[in-house]
Amino acid sequence: MATIYATGKRKTAIAKVWLTPGNGSMLINGKTLDQWLGGHETLKMKVRLPLEATKQLESMNVKATTIGGGYAAQADALKHGITKALAEYEPSLRAILKPMGLLTRDSRTVERKKPGKKKARRSPQFSKR
């Protein structure tokens, strides 16, 4: 019974994922997926996507811890971590996951604030007089 570890990232959120063969239970931060994400059905679908695409939803147990960011970024980080763990567990699954764009880390982050600007791009209000 091999345990596979992978790290998923998105914005400032990080998900540490442990994947083991089992009955399909998901434990995130000590809670089930439904307790952790509540009524956010689209985010739950996002998290389950790599497991559904590879038909591993009922045969893999997921144990994960997430830190940083908001719940949406954490869900994306978790999806990335599960995908990386699946690709490491069974290299043949990579051919299914890669075309779906699940192995690619979403590298978009917050743009830094520039000097003389109110925010990253917002300039101070112009005054003619």
Strand and helix layout:
Layout: E1 4-10, E2 13-21, E3 26-28, E4 31-32, H1 33-37, H2 41-53, E5 60-67, H3 71-89, H4 94-97
Parallel strand pairs: 3-5
Antiparallel strand pairs: 1-2, 2-5, 3-4
Structure summary:
By secondary structure, the chain is α+β, with helices and mostly antiparallel strands. The chain has helices spanning 33-37, 41-53, 71-89, 94-97, and strands at residues 4-10, 13-21, 26-28, 31-32, 60-67. It has a five-stranded mixed β-sheet.
As a percent range, the share of strand residues is 15-25%
What is the level-2 CATH architecture name?
A: 2-Layer Sandwich
Mean pLDDT: 95
- What is the name of the CATH class? Alpha Beta
Please trace the helix and strand order, writing H or E for each element.
EEEEHHEHH
What coarse outline follows from CA principal-axis ratios?
Answer: elongated
Biggest beta-sheet profile: 5 strands, mixed
The number of helical runs is 4
Structural class: alpha+beta
Counted beta strands: 5
CA-based gyration radius: 18 Å
Percent helix: 25-40%
| CATH topology type | Ribosomal Protein S5, domain 2
Low-confidence stretches: none
Instruction: Tell me the span between the first and last alpha carbons.
Output: 74 Å
Q: How many domain modules? A: 1
User: Which strand order does the major sheet show?
Assistant: 1-2-5-3-4
